[in-house]
Design goal:
- With about 290 residues, the chain is α/β, with parallel strands linked by helices.
- Among the domains are: about 55 residues; about 70 residues, 2-Layer Sandwich (Double Stranded RNA Binding Domain), CATH 3.30.160; about 55 residues, DNA Methylphosphotriester Repair Domain (3-Layer(aba) Sandwich).
- The chain contains twelve helices and ten strands.
- Strands 3-2-1-4 form a four-stranded mixed beta sheet.
- About 5% of the residues have low confidence.
Length: about 290
């Protein structure tokens, strides 16, 4: 499929109206064409912007409008606004006033927020996420996110506590290796930070990268979860991306639980997967350094 044919089908892809054959052809094209793949994110953003224009026409009264609840929590020195629906957590934000939070919510979801009591099971998840314990299976409501957005966000929830992955790894896991920029955009727009841990995604070149609430907050969250950031920074400065074991001939991400168990005398550093496999090492099945 050529770019022109794919671009004429992007909106139908977004709304799920493509026939199975066309859907397969478009997805195959997007895997190899970063330009068209980025256009998908642009169309999604435009659709949201158009939808938000109707918010002012919606009833403003909590009694008359479709409403969700929200509450403010303070955990480990971090104050967050937490919104929820009957299906789970819908938005978390760590800055601004309650008025700003409600306006942000209405702009994103075209629904009103009213003060309410966060259900205990959801409260425990937010507390665990902010305190560094992590949430294995967060109860979240992704709303009208596209299938690709949902796929990326669900992949983030599977990155283990105390470990990090690269944006390119997430793109490969989502089946769209050319969509690194789109993955970055989805992480940046993640409305459920902390419980959907976009802070566990870092640049492949090293460092923690950007974060909605600043690099300091990102480093704090990762440190609480047990990530040895100083060691990661040092490895990145040397161009090291993976660590292998001479005893098992397996290589991993440096933060992988199995990599942390390798004795110093058995550790082998690799700059990329090609070098590791060229030396006869196999990718770890747990952290999947070359993706599934």
């Amino acid at each position: 499929m050529r770019c022109r044919s794919a671009l004429t089908r992007i909106d139908a892809l977004r709304t799920g109206e493509l026939e199975p054959l066309e859907l397969g052809e478009v997805n195959e094209h997007l895997k190899t064409c970063p330009s068209c793949d980025e256009s998908v994110a642009d169309v999604v953003g435009l659709a949201r912007a158009v939808k938000s224009c109707a918010v002012e026409q919606a009833p403003r009264s909590c009694r008359d409008a479709i409403t969700d609840g929200f509450e403010m929590l303070e955990v480990s020195g971090v104050r967050v606004w937490v919104a929820f629906s009957d299906r789970g957590l819908t938005m978390i934000h760590a800055e601004g006033s309650d008025t700003e939070f409600r306006e942000r919510y209405a702009s994103r979801f075209a629904r009103e927020l009213c003060p309410g009591s966060l259900p205990d099971r959801l409260r425990r998840q937010v507390v665990a996420a902010l305190s560094g314990e992590g949430v294995a299976k967060p109860t979240v409501d992704f709303g009208e996110a596209t299938e690709f957005e949902k796929s990326v966000l669900q992949i983030l929830t599977k990155i283990p506590r105390g470990e990090v992955r690269s944006y390119s790894w997430v793109a490969r896991q989502a089946g769209r290796p050319g969509a690194v920029r789109a993955v970055g955009t989805i992480c940046a727009r993640n409305v459920l930070p902390f419980v959907v841990p976009c802070h566990r995604v870092v640049p492949v070149a090293g460092g923690v990268g950007n974060y909605a609430f600043g690099a300091t907050m990102k480093r704090t969250l990762l440190t609480r979860e047990g990530v040895a950031l100083d060691e990661l920074d040092e490895l990145a400065s040397k161009g090291v991306r993976y660590i292998g074991s001479r005893t098992t001939n397996i290589f991993c991400f440096p933060t992988c639980r199995d990599a942390r168990r390798i004795r110093e005398e058995n550790r082998v550093a690799f700059r990329d997967g090609e070098q590791a496999t060229g030396k006869g090492f196999r990718p770890c099945l747990r952290c999947q350094p070359l993706a599934a």
